[in-house]
Amino acid sequence: MKSETRLIIVILALVTVINYGNAQTNAAIASKNGVISSREKVEMLFPGGKTKALILSFDDGMVADRRLVRLMNEYGLIGTFHLNSNKLGTKDYLTKEEIKVVYKGHEVSAHTANHPNLPDISREEVLYEVGEDRRELERLSGNLVRGMAYPFGNYNDSVIEIINGLGIEYARTVKDTYSFGIPNEFLKWHPTIHQFGKAYFTPDNPENDKKELAGFYQVVNHFLKTDSLALLDVWGHSWENDGAGDRWTEMEKFFKMVSRNPEIYYTTQIGLVDYINAFKNLKFSVDKSFVTNLSSINVFIKMKGEAFNIEPGSTRLLD
Ligand SMILES: [Zn+2]
Prior knowledge:
The structure is a single chain. The chain is α/β, with parallel strands linked by helices. Helices cover 37% and strands 18% of the residues. It folds into two domains: 53-274, TIM Barrel (Alpha-Beta Barrel); 283-319, no CATH class. The protein has eight helices and 14 strands. It is globular and about 60 Å long.
């Protein structure tokens, strides 16, 4: 027998053995589980099998962020901070040097370099505003910047196309939903509610402030009580707290209500994006009897009323 022929036979034999081995493993997995309907509903749970998630995001990076972040740190809360890099170091804004220190443990995210109304400027300017902000904030924070908040909450299709091309993976609007749904369009990420609702939006209107504040706490309490999968996503600005009323006290009251709660998954906005993407990228067998998690994140799911933890890079049976 020629040596090449012998080699081919050896390879064929090896392939057969390997395939036989795989078939046995698959058969073992299938028979152990019996037949599970592929219509079995798979629900996402948050890390740790939790059903509540909290996102706090604040825009502009003005000096009041120092006090706000200190307060958040006191209550063990994490936030996402959308910053305008060209404004840093100017009056009432943080300096570039303190970005790394002030936001340690929090997410630094883009808000454009100069805070223009994006639908009003040219495509080239949008490219500059978002690309430059990303670049400079990455340099200052030492971390990747993969998200943003639209200045004034404004965007259009052209803006979305450009920021997508710049590697921006989520963009928060200012359109409050007053609900706890999980966003499915990350570049049109509508938050739950502005800090204290629309209290203080109109000056010298204590009646309205009272009504809006009550509405805000009602939303927070509803979130704390619900059993459904819920995301509370509160946005605002630290500098608002320096305005009329006793807003710093209100802020602390709110932080106290939501802090150190074992039922809540505390996350940055990009943290939740990564988690949702890892969940969406789970690979299920046709009969949903086993699943593979290709990501580097622990993913928790609910199936047949039971919670499963799918460890990173692993395949597990769902029985
Ligand atoms: Zn802003």
